[in-house]
Design goal:
2 domains; 1 helix; ten-stranded mixed sheet; elongated; alpha+beta; two-stranded antiparallel sheet
């Protein structure tokens, strides 16, 4: 039995093919490392961008809170027990005024703690309405727009535990979140 040795050219071709394959693998690995490095840099940049965006939004919220507090001082506020609902139109009026009420109505317990508050626009509930227990804990909170329940209405027990939460849109019950 005889063994045949390949020519120098065959050996050279085999070595070159193996070397080419090795170079290709090394090149691909370095490309992946560069891509991972770029992704890490982008990720760090995105995290910095997100932190900056959050900081800017927090500043915007603070500005809006301040503006809201300033506007709140300009809103007419009356004793809610003096509001009267017109039987024909369903609109709320302050005492004997003929124009539908726009402003805030509040009621307090005899000790001065809040009992109820609601906002009205042109005689219709518009904004947040809240009721409290005599112990000071929130009893119910609802959101209104143009006289219709619009948003989440939550009800709590006297100890502050959430009893019920429902979602309304334009006066229609959309979802029972908790019952």
């Amino acid at each position: 039995m005889s063994m045949r040795c390949g020519s120098v050219n065959e050996v050279r071709s085999t070595v070159l093919a193996a070397l080419s394959g090795f170079c290709l693998v090394a090149l691909l690995c370095s490309c992946f490392e560069e891509e991972e490095s770029e992704q890490a840099t982008r990720s760090e940049g995105n995290a910095l961008d997100r932190r900056e965006r959050i900081r800017q939004l927090e500043l915007d919220v603070e500005t809006l809170k301040w503006e809201n507090a300033r506007l709140f001082l300009k809103i007419r506020s009356v004793d809610g027990s003096s509001l009267v609902r017109d039987k024909l139109t369903g609109l709320w009026h302050f005492d004997v005024e003929r124009t539908p009420y726009t402003g805030r109505a509040t009621e307090n317990y005899s000790d001065g703690s809040p009992k109820a508050e609601a906002s009205f626009l042109k005689g219709k509930k518009d904004g947040v309405e809240r009721f409290w227990y005599a112990n000071g804990l929130l009893k119910e909170e609802s959101q209104w727009f143009d006289g219709l329940a619009n948003g989440i209405i939550r009800t709590w027990d006297k100890e502050g535990g959430l009893i019920r939460a429902v979602r309304y849109k334009k006066g229609e019950l959309i979802e029972v979140i908790r019952d």
